[in-house]
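Q: My collaborator sent me two sequences in one message, no labels, and asked for predicted structures for both. Can we handle them in order? The first one she listed is below.
A: Yes, handling them in the order given. First sequence, followed by its structure tokens:
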Amino acid sequence: WTENEEIYKKDLPEMSFQVWRVKPSLFRLYDFPWLDSRIHYGSYNTAGINVKMQFKAQNTLPYLSADFQRSDGHLENAQWTTASLQAGVHQKFNEIHLLHMYTNYNLNKRGIWGYWDIYQEDWETNTTFWEIGGELENQWNDKFRTYFNGKYLLDEHENAFNYPEGGYDLAAGAKIKVNNTGIDLELGLHSSDLEINDGNLIHPLQDTLNLKKNDASLFSGQINLQQNFRSVTAEIGMLYQNGENQETRRVARQDNKERFNPVVSLSAGFQGKVKIYARYRPGLEINRFRNAVKAIPFSELEAIKILNYTSRWEAGFDLQMPEGIN
């Protein structure tokens, strides 16, 4: 699978249109319906349709994006189908409160192709992802802001077996800024309910005793202090986390983790065009099945971990190009 270079040349199309956060100033736009659509057809019966729509109705800004793509593929059993739907609404109640409600749906279906001494013609993978959520932002004044957000997700992967995962993410926070000093507070709660089987298409294990159920939850609380020194911003904070994962296969096994982790960040900006940053932010995280498994038909899932500790070092720069340069 990894030695077949052709597999990396067959990327599926991705949605490039996504509305997640809308600033209040955008409510001055779209006084009339805005619609964009596209239909295409090509070789190997590759076809697709895409529709995007957005408009404003007083202080309400709904949007919709739908996409469908399919192809027979350029090899036997290389067919694929993708479909996605993104819909939501931004509601501005006044100069303080801004609400965003949304739902996302994605379907990805493809045949398995490669070495014929291993693969079978009827092998196929099918993944379905659906989430619904919302966010409420409250800009009380130029120094104080609060927010609340949450989402529920249902993620299902299927080949010879079925791997369903459900879960939710909740967060609430506040940001305070006085002169050159800022304070960030955030509380979060995350959960995952995952059922997997150690078998895959190459090593089929149909015994129900091989089913493994994971029920994980993670609570976190964080406080950060920011200080600006002209073009340099320093941030230091503390992250508290308490995680629990119960794994059940024949018998139940519970894993509890509790940690205090430092958070450090340093950034420097130059003339508003270049920003250099470095961050250190370790912590526990719930490892979603979609992110943990790269090749679903052939991955060995016995050692998969749902609740992981990661030590993250990040560094990079942001460059803003002058207007008129493409």
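Q: And the one she listed second?
A: Here it is, processed independently of the first:
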Amino acid sequence: LNIIITEFIIQISKEVEDLIEQIKKQKEGKLLQDFDLCCLDSLKISAKVLIEKFQAFIISLQTTIKIMLIDIANLDIFKEERDECINLIMSIIFANEKIYNLFYQLYELLLEKEIADFRENCDKLRGRAPYDMGIKQRFCLDETTQKIQLKIIDEEIEKKTANGMISSVQKLAKLKEKIQGKQNFTPYSNVIRKMKEITQERIPFMKMVLLANLSHEIEDEVNQFWEGIIDYLKVEELCMDSDTLMCVFIYTTVNCNFPEILIHLRFINDFTTYLSKNAMTGYYYSTLEASLFYINRGSEIDLRPNDDDGRISVLKRKKDEDEEDNVRIKDDF
């Protein structure tokens, strides 16, 4: 198997190199806006064919492994582990730094205009407060959330004072002082830092896992901001719905200043399986993709009233949009 994979890497590397050279020759001496879109579309079709060939090889190799193990493995179990086998093969291939760098360079050339447009749209949106990006007040993690916290503390102090609970009132007074002392807010700074770490991961599936782990960073930052006050809240008050999660992704992506995220999402799109993308791990990848969809519309982000605090429900419109903009490879993956 190692020999087969090695030979395939040599072959596919040569084809990617040839395609990169074609693109460079077509772009040579031309400004981005002057590049022939018809020519670019033709090159994208060539890239799509190449990627489909890559995917077909992975499927064939996975099938070969299944045949080799047919006498010693339970086929029902093997079917369940199909994605794991494919992800393992992908990890072996992309452990090769050369093949990874070649595909990265290919995507960089093919997505040059999209990256430039995305950078421009992020620049337009950067500077907006979390609340203005549609994040509910209790999840803004800045002065907006701080005001809610102080209101909750004042209400609790009033209740405890009425019940003669002096020690509790003193404890709440210290907590209020601590909250009032918070300044220089940097909402979701750890999420922004963690998002950039996707550049350190070459294996497409692990890129998707890293995005899924952003949910833990979000949870940790929310809990840390609300530390000491959680006991005075109902559990559901700090449960983030899908709309708010996407707004957090919009905010963090805009402030991440990392338009090359588009390249890493292409790696995930092209080199992870359909089932992986539709599992819980892929949920956060899909949410991030949806957030990019809205960022690319800049000022057209649809702010709609929400029964909770008058903010938005941007997720609903995404379902109705034409998906022609998102080119996807339809195959066994």
